[in-house]
Amino acid sequence: MLCCMPGVAFVPALLVSWSSAAFIISYAIAVLAGHVEPLVPYISDTGTKPPESGVFGFMINISALLAAITMYIRYLLIEKQNESSHFVRSSCNMFTLCMGLMGCTGMGIVATFQELAVPSVHDIGALVAFGSGVVYITFQSIISYKSCPRWNTYFVCHIRMAIAVISIIAFIPMIVFASKISVTKIDWTPGEKDYTFHFMSAICEWTVAFGFIFFFLTFIRDFQRFSLRISTEIHED
């Protein structure tokens, strides 16, 4: 089905489906193995212990790669559209791409360094991933408005901005509540110390994560109008 999509729409479609599967599969394995409580664990909690840690690390690293490819194609698309419309500065487009790639790097760090093994590095990776991701979708929303009405509909722009605003609103308390947790652990139970902070922070984390997924979902229609061509030149001496 993905191969039948016009243009390069299969790229964000694959990113969305793969990332959703990464979260759901690792969560299901962790819960069935009894490693986490079913009620809103951190995303990283579902990828800390084997066997789910291997699945989580592998799938999230692939998601980071797919996200980087999607962001680069999006950058090329805006550059191409900008040749005739001049709706955004090229430097702004490049800055947005760099922020997105920083977020992908953070995802790779999160996937590689488990929460309990190297907590400080893991937390830095998570902060970079979520922080850079929020900046990326915010700037992409602004760029989308600037490209209206030729390259985007206002309805799509409103959807993107709504997702960006919700992600920003969720990102701030996610950091605040997480900073109040005094111990790093994955086996949380209701009623114990710092559980409320953990619970609220985890809800916000899942909100931001799926905000990213829904945001990339809106790229599919744009990517249908764009195709990449590889040209080769043969020089004879």
UniProtKB/TrEMBL annotation:
Residues 8-225 form the CWH43-like N-terminal domain. GO terms for cellular component: endomembrane system; lysosome. It is a multi-pass membrane protein. InterPro entries: CWH43_N, DRAM/TMEM150_Autophagy_Mod. It is found in: Endomembrane system. It holds the Pfam family Frag1. One of its GO terms (biological process) is regulation of autophagy. Keywords: Membrane, Transmembrane, Transmembrane helix. The chain crosses the membrane at residues 54-73, 94-112, 124-143, 155-177, 197-220. Belongs to the DRAM/TMEM150 family. This is DRAM1 protein. It comes from Erythrocercus mccallii.
